[in-house]
């Protein structure tokens, strides 16, 4: 739970802060550390300010040396609360002028303002309806004392309203505009500008300088900020400025407006880190392409080839000519060489004997992951594009092992015999039996003739002796059956190979989905959540 959530507000500001806190959480580990720390700073200041007095409006009076800040605060308060002197800088530490002191102590402690002057409720220009107003007289931002600038930089990030006091000579000062006003371009709603010492200008000159200053402010993004020509010495224009201050203090919305501007500014700083649209999570086509590439890298083709050759080897052993089929036992089983014949090991522990993590395999896996990640990254910009790539590549060792396990654990029907093998095998044995009977018959007749026995004529069919027909038929049938079985085995082996390929690819697809696609999808959802939260945080209510 973030610290700013204790305020219990249901306002638009609360939603902005909640969104910015979400942005911070999603940005950690992705965006540069300095950007994340800036978000912490904004959230911390918001938490602190919202825990302090909401009835007080803090207006910081900023300006360069000699602009008359102290004289102006004296004129507005109607008393000499701020020291005015020719020596510069006059103000060395913050001075608070407070209307309605009750409850202001902790707020001023947070602002680190020790010198405080409490004003009566009916004092001078700001006496009426300004209960809960704090004016801060601050050191010159261009002071030669480094501590003074440090105070100004801190206060410019803490006060509710920024009142910039310039004079006709320094109103276009580069340090003022480049270092302070331009970076606070999103804070126009809580910015006032007083052109002090306006009594030194003629009416026409005053109009020209005011118009010039307004133009510079508009160029810096502070369009609409009102410039008040005033003179602390003659009090010209003070009523208009005091009226604007009274109006701001009376609304008691400046603190929230300031914090909303801070959140919007912090959000705009992160705008370069998001693309123009949300990213879709990888679809079926992208995942199918990934699984196909990974299957190829894992060696599915080699396994399928082994399945085909192993089937043909087993088919020959079951259906080949019995006289020569034993020769096939000298050929090693391709599946056994890949360690894919074992059934005595738990499926979760099985591994193939193919070399895991070989350079060629890693190169193909890397290429598959890079293609998938680049497609998934779409319009994402850095560092999110790199984060999506990292999500894909972070699991390479797990992926390689998972793919190998998927191959080893896939049911390849290695122990299943085809239905036609016993039939052809039986026919082969019958053919061999006919051959043996024919040879035996002729052998007996030859032996009888050798021993001078009367040899009866062998029965014949169409003039061909039956023993000869048995021999010829047995040989021919055996050869024809072997050829036929080989042809059938070739087609059946291809069919089993296709089936094995489907199963192997499905197994690889599951690994690709769980090990690669899910982390990449999670990173894309994180990016989309970051983008949505950033949009909400930057949408001032």
As for the number of domains, it is 2
Order of H and E elements:
HHEHEHEEHEHEHEHHHHHHHHHEEH
| End-to-end CA span | 23 Å
* Model regions low in confidence, pLDDT < 50 over at least 5 residues: 1-10
What Rg is obtained from the alpha carbons, in whole angstroms?
A: 45 Å
Identify the overall geometry.
Answer: rod-shaped
Number of helices: 17
How many beta strands in the DSSP annotation? 9
**Main beta sheet, described?**
7 strands, mixed
Which percent range fits the helix content? 55-70%
Protein name: ABC transporter
Organism: Arthrobacter crusticola
Pfam family, one: MMR_HSR1
Keywords: Membrane, Transmembrane, Transmembrane helix
What would your notes on this structure say?
- This protein is an alpha/beta fold and 541 residues long.
- The chain folds into 2 domains: 55-251, 3-Layer(aba) Sandwich (Rossmann fold), CATH 3.40.50.300; 284-537, no CATH class.
- It contains 17 helices and 9 strands.
- The chain has a 7-stranded mixed sheet, with helices on both faces. Strands 8-9 form a two-stranded antiparallel ribbon.
- Helix 1 crosses helix 17 (466-537), helix 2 (33-50) runs antiparallel to helix 9 (254-269) and helix 13 (359-377) packs across helix 17 (466-537).
């Amino acid at each position: 739970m973030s610290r700013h959530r204790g305020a219990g507000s249901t306002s638009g500001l609360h939603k902005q802060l909640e969104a910015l806190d979400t942005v911070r959480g999603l940005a950690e580990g992705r965006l540069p550390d300095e950007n994340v720390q800036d978000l912490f700073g904004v959230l911390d200041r918001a938490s602190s300010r919202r825990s302090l007095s909401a009835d007080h409006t803090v207006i910081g009076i900023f300006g360069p040396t000699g602009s008359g800040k102290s004289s102006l605060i004296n004129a507005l308060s109607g008393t000499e609360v701020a020291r005015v002197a020719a020596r510069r800088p006059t103000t060395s530490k913050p001075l608070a002028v407070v209307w309605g002191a009750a409850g202001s102590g902790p707020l001023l402690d947070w602002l680190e303002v020790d010198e405080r002057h409490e004003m009566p409720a009916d004092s001078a220009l700001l006496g009426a309806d300004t209960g809960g107003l704090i004016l801060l007289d601050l050191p010159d931002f261009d002071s030669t004392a480094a501590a003074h600038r440090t105070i100004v930089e801190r206060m410019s990030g803490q006060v509710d309203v920024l009142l910039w006091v310039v004079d006709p000579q320094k109103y276009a000062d580069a340090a003022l505009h480049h270092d302070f006003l331009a970076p606070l371009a999103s804070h126009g709603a809580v910015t006032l500008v007083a052109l002090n010492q306006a009594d030194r200008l003629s009416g026409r000159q005053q109009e020209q300088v005011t118009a010039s200053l307004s133009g510079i402010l508009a160029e810096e993004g502070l369009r609409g900020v009102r410039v008040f020509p005033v003179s602390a010495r003659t009090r010209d224009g003070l009523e208009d400025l005091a009226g604007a201050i009274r109006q701001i203090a009376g609304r008691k919305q400046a603190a929230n407006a300031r914090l909303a501007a801070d959140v919007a500014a912090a959000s705009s700083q992160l705008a370069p880190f998001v693309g123009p649209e949300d990213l879709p999570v990888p679809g079926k086509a992208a995942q199918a392409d990934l699984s196909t590439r990974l299957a190829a890298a894992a060696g599915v083709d080699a396994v399928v080839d082994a399945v085909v050759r192993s089937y043909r080897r087993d088919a020959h052993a079951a259906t080949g000519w019995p006289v020569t089929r034993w020769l096939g036992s000298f050929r090693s089983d391709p599946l056994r060489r890949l360690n894919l014949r074992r059934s005595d090991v738990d499926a979760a522990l099985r591994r193939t004997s193919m070399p895991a993590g070989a350079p060629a395999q890693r190169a193909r896996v890397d290429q598959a992951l890079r293609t998938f990640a680049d497609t998934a990254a779409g319009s994402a910009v850095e560092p999110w594009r790199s984060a999506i790539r990292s999500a894909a590549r972070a699991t390479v060792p797990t992926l390689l092992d998972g793919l190998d396990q998927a191959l080893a654990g896939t049911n390849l029907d290695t122990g299943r015999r085809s239905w036609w093998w016993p039939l052809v095998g039986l026919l082969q044995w019958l053919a061999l039996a006919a051959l043996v009977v024919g040879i035996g018959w002729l052998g007996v007749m030859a032996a009888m003739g050798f021993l001078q026995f009367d040899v009866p004529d062998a029965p014949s069919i169409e003039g061909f002796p039956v023993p000869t027909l048995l021999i010829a038929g047995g040989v021919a049938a055996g050869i024809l059956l072997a050829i036929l079985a080989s042809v059938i085995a070739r087609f059946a082996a291809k069919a089993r190979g296709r089936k094995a390929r489907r199963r192997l690819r499905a197994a690889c697809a599951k690994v690709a989905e769980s090990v690669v696609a899910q982390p990449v999808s999670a990173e894309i959802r994180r990016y989309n959540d970051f983008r949505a939260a950033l949009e909400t945080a930057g949408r001032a209510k």
